[in-house]
Specification:
It is built from 28 helices and ten strands. The chain is mostly helical.
Length: 722
């Protein structure tokens, strides 16, 4: 029998997937109230003091904003009459100050919760004997044109860590591929087979590639729920760079079993693996400042928490019954499929009566950071579009007000950038107006003393200092919390090095902030003008952006900074010096981005003991497993001749891979089903090619992927002469 076309009598039939267990996932009607299935509006796991907690955090932020509004009014001094620019300045200040005031009050709550060892709940313990599991959980790893070696290394680390808990039988791992690159697709299949062979996990590790990439990641997960969700009580969503320890997964699954009204538990993923200076800054900030922020929002969100799309466990039945996403009216970028689906899925589940909790004190949840500001900008462009799209989801009937607040905060995360820019430009215009406009000292009414319109510099200084204190206070609170945690303090290099790291991150981050402001502003304007973000693969390597690319991308920011600085100097030298922090970041944007994108500079900081995090100075067991898996894959690649990078050549070079590929193909097209034009054209081209060389020359990437999605196309490829 031909080794390429089937299995021998001695071989066990190949199965990449378990038997299907369908689960209905209806599309939700945003204009009608949902069926709560007997659950009340307030979940049983909601803290009893939740109303007081929210009043303390939000009420304090409102009072701080009211005081700030009064102080900015004193700065503007309306003795000479309130100008239009003055009103704009005050309105913008109030909106922006409310934003940082809420972050401050939430961080104060988080600091108290952190130092008092809170951040848990639902019966979860940090340590101690692991609970025994009675129900099944699926780990879902959606991937889209990602490097297969890193994806499989992460899964192998998770698998081994679960195996060490003794609870592996309760978990299955699914690789849910939406990969469109045919070469990466076949590499994924080869890596999947190698992962199964190295773990013996034929009964626990599965692979499925969608041949129709509908609705991106949400559609990928939704398709799994509809086909296999009925067999699993819970599902854990992962990203391609996610790693979670077996102990953490077991404790989360046990918490779901103990609390039948909980629909989702979100962990706090810690950023690890950063090598460039930018990634190390993100890693340090997330590790040191992140807990204060996360503990705070967990404290006052209660059972109305949020979902970040990964490193969370979800009750499958709750997700299926409430989180089927509809398309919003209109065309992209505001209409169509909901991009930032995680916020909406959490809101709809809570609308259906399910509790959504965040447990920031549960260790063992990790992810990676984009290596450069450029990579963050690409990701943020997509997130920005998704968050702005939530404007159309806000009117949904039955949403909890905290769920609406999550969406408003998500929208504000991007809208505040253009607001800061307008605020900055308004300040320049006010100074310009004061410089050139002839003041009216007496006005229309007779008075003994003249009106002296002015901006009070002393009051301005007080407002500036107060605003900076509110802005930087969460970092100081985080540093104090670090000092009170001996293990974390040692892991960050000690009190002195940690302080220097906070100072370094604050200074460099402050210079990067105006660049990020302009990037996000351009993203908002692009979306408002109707441009869709598309779907791009996230780059996860360690930087290496050519200098000329940086010059092309960031030269406009340098020019803007020079123009802004010139204008400020012409208006008033004092205004120029006030704006120096913003101007420096913009004028030196090119060398700043080049510096922060450098892996060598990042390593220099590590050698100096700066921007260290405990996960690199004393790696937890699951990260050691990840490093071992990556080393094993790398060593195997050196010892064994690697497959050709081209998918057609790879299938011809490995008979076992070819058989597995054929076994994983979808059923043949039935009469009356939609015709794939790329597949039709590709098969014709393949039939006319005559040789493999000609086939590689004439097939486009889409046609090659379509051809490899049919048994006819694969058999033709396998039998073409070289």
């Amino acid at each position: 029998m031909d080794a390429m076309s089937g299995t021998t009598a001695q071989e066990t039939p190949f199965h990449a997937l378990p038997p299907e267990a369908p689960l209905a996932m209806p599309v939700q009607d945003l204009h009608a109230l949902p069926d709560r299935e007997g659950r009340g509006r307030r979940p049983a796991t909601s803290p009893h003091s939740i109303v007081l907690r929210r009043l303390a955090v939000i009420g304090s932020a409102v009072l701080m904003t009211a005081y700030g509004a009064w102080r900015i009014h004193k700065v503007m001094d309306d003795a000479g009459g309130i100008s239009t620019l003055g009103v704009i300045m005050q309105v913008l200040f109030v909106a922006l100050f409310m934003w940082i005031a809420l972050a401050f009050t939430s961080s104060v709550a988080g600091f108290c919760s952190l130092v008092l060892r809170g951040g848990l709940g639902l019966g979860i313990r940090r340590s101690g004997p692991l609970p025994r599991l009675e129900r099944r959980t699926a780990l879902l790893l959606p991937t889209y044109n990602e490097p297969p070696e890193r994806v499989m290394a992460g899964l192998k680390a998770i698998y081994t860590s679960l195996e060490q808990t003794g609870e592996l039988a309760a978990f299955d791992l699914f690789i849910l591929s939406d990969t469109t690159n045919p070469d990466v697709w076949v590499q994924e299949e080869a890596a999947f087979l190698a992962l199964r062979a190295s773990t013996g996990g034929d009964q626990h590790i599965f692979y499925r590639r969608r041949h129709a990439n509908i609705e991106r990641k949400a559609g990928n997960v939704g398709e799994w729920v509809r086909r296999f969700g009925g067999a699993y009580d819970h599902m854990v969503t992962l990203d391609a760079d996610s790693v979670m320890s077996g102990e953490t997964l077991v404790r989360m699954a046990a918490a779901m079993e103990r609390n039948p009204g909980v629909g989702l538990i979100q962990t706090l993923p810690v950023i690890v693996g950063g090598t460039t200076l930018f990634a190390r800054m993100q890693q340090f900030a997330g590790r040191v400042y992140g807990p204060v922020i996360a503990y705070g929002i967990a404290w006052w969100h209660g059972s109305e928490g949020n979902y970040w799309g990964h490193n969370a466990i979800i009750r499958t039945r709750a997700f299926a019954s409430q989180a089927g996403l509809p398309h919003v009216p209109g065309k992209p970028p505001f209409g169509g499929h909901i991009l930032s689906h995680d916020f909406v899925e959490a809101a709809l589940m809570r609308r259906g009566g399910w509790a959504i909790h965040m447990i920031p004190a549960l260790d063992g949840s990790y992810e990676e950071s984009p290596p450069t500001l450029t990579d963050v900008a690409i990701r943020d462009r997509r997130w920005c579009q998704g968050n702005l799209q939530h404007v159309k989801v806000l009117p949904t009937r039955g949403l909890h007000w905290i769920s609406r607040m999550h969406m408003v905060v998500g929208i504000g995360a991007y809208v505040t950038s253009p607001l800061w820019l307008v605020f900055l430009l308004t300040g320049i215009l006010i100074s310009l107006q004061a410089h050139f406009q002839r003041p009216e000292y007496f006005g229309d009414t007779k008075t003994l003393y003249p009106h002296w319109p002015h901006v009070d510099p002393v009051q301005a200084k007080y407002v500036f200092i107060g605003t900076m204190l509110v802005l930087l206070a969460p970092k100081m609170l985080a540093y104090i919390a670090l000092l009170l945690d001996p293990a974390a303090r040692r892991g960050c290099g000690g009190a002195v090095r940690a302080a220097l790291s906070v100072l370094t991150e604050t200074l460099i981050g402050g210079l990067v902030a105006p660049i990020a402001m302009l990037i996000q502003t351009s993203g908002v304007l692009s979306i408002l003008s109707g441009h869709d973000s598309g779907w791009n693969t996230q780059r996860r390597d360690d930087g290496g952006i050519p200098l000329m690319d940086i010059v092309r991308q960031y030269g406009r920011f340098t020019l803007f900074g020079l123009a802004l600085g010139t204008g400020a100097w012409v208006v008033s030298p004092s205004l120029f010096f006030w704006m120096t922090p913003v101007l420096l970041g913009l004028v030196f944007s090119i060398p700043l981005v080049a510096l922060t994108s450098s892996r060598a500079v990042g390593l220099d900081f590590r050698r100096a003991g700066l921007l260290l995090v405990p996960e690199e100075t004393a790696p937890p067991p699951v990260l050691n497993l990840l490093a071992a898996a990556e080393s094993s894959i790398e060593a195997q690649a050196k010892a064994v001749p690697s497959l050709p990078g081209d998918s057609l050549k790879a299938l011809r070079a490995d008979a076992r891979l070819a058989r597995a590929h054929l076994a994983m193909l979808p059923p043949p097209r039935k009469a009356g089903e939609a015709i794939n034009p790329d597949q039709l054209v590709g098969l014709v081209k393949l039939g006319e090619a005559g040789t493999l060389t000609n086939a590689l020359r004439v097939l486009s990437p889409k046609e090659k992927a379509a051809v490899l999605g049919t048994a006819q196309g694969v058999e033709t490829v396998l039998h073409l002469p070289d």
